[in-house]
């Protein structure tokens, strides 16, 4: 499995798979991101939106690709999903909870 934090790289991969007539699935998971240890105290982050994570796994062709992005605001999420919309339209999309996404990513790493 290929991992990327570059949205452009993910979109290029998806576009190439589409042009080759590949069918596949796109798995999506979005939730608050819980870091191992807080970097700031609760007082420092009062009133701020929590750090969130969008995870997208595309299984099309021989090698799946995994994209992950951290963001704070709904506007950032909207921008990401807008750019990912062609992928969501081309491939069968399913939203997963964190546990199922972790299992899927782990299985592909083995």
UniProtKB/TrEMBL annotation:
This is Uncharacterized protein. It comes from Sporosarcina newyorkensis.
């Amino acid at each position: 499995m290929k991992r990327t934090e570059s949205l452009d790289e993910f979109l290029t991969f998806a576009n190439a798979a589409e042009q080759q007539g590949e069918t596949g699935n796109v798995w999506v998971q979005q939730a608050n991101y819980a870091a191992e240890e807080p970097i700031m105290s609760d007082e420092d982050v009062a009133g701020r939106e929590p750090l969130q994570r969008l995870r997208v796994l595309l299984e099309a062709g021989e090698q799946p690709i995994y994209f992950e992005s951290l963001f704070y605001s709904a506007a950032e999420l909207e921008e990401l999903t807008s750019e990912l919309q062609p992928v969501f339209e081309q491939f069968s999309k399913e939203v997963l909870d964190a546990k199922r996404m972790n299992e899927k990513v782990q299985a592909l790493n083995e």
